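Record Inositol-1-monophosphatase, 267 aa.
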Amino acid sequence: MIDASDDLKAMIEAAKAAGDGLERHFGRLADLEIRSKNGPADMVSIADEEAEHTTRGILARARPSYGFLGEEGGSVSGGDDAQTWIVDPLDGTTNFLFACPLWGVNVALAREDRVVAGVTYIPMLNELYVAEEGKGCWLNGKQVRVSPRHALIESVLACGIPFAGKPDHPLFAREMELLTSDVAGIRRTGACAVDMAWVAAGRWDAYWERCLNAWDMGPGIILVQEAGGRATGVDGGPLDIHAGHVCVSNGGVHDPLIERLNAALSE
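=>
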């Protein structure tokens, strides 16, 4: 098991506590209050808000001076804003609300906007992914690595698909046109947390998505990096967690994937 710092221990505690609460809600979905955030396809429930309250409370007790950025509550300053907790209390809300088990809790720690530790917890699969800079990526106490593949034709990719209210639908169609004939398969789980963790574990060879937030991608960045993979923007440039897009891979298929994603932009 990873030799976790006190920060990482607090992150693990927060993710598991939030996940346990969400799992209880998952057993009685009919009772949840659900409303739209930014349109009919962008939903939030009391479960999301309770999970963020849980994570924020645990993290604040551990490091009260750190800043906090959460999907539901936004940004909260601390005395040491160079260090910020970044939390998505329920990544894959639509999956959750439609009784699909592919959803998770994301907790990351960023220093000067560089992710240095991350936890992704997928309660319904009993999968806890943790990583800290220089210490590898671990799944349920066992170290994991990205896949060894180097050819797109042998690779399975994952992606996010823009839904109602999101931009770039024509761009996504062009990406599919350029990629589907050159890969072994393309998957969409509906949860960025799951897809990025699965790249780290070697299940997918790469994942990309546009129109994301820092809390969607935060933990997955360091999970993949510490598993031996690569993380950039979808254009291949340096990763900015606030830029709204990400591409992570095993490293071997990164450049040809980026080449096709850039080609889709130019058409």
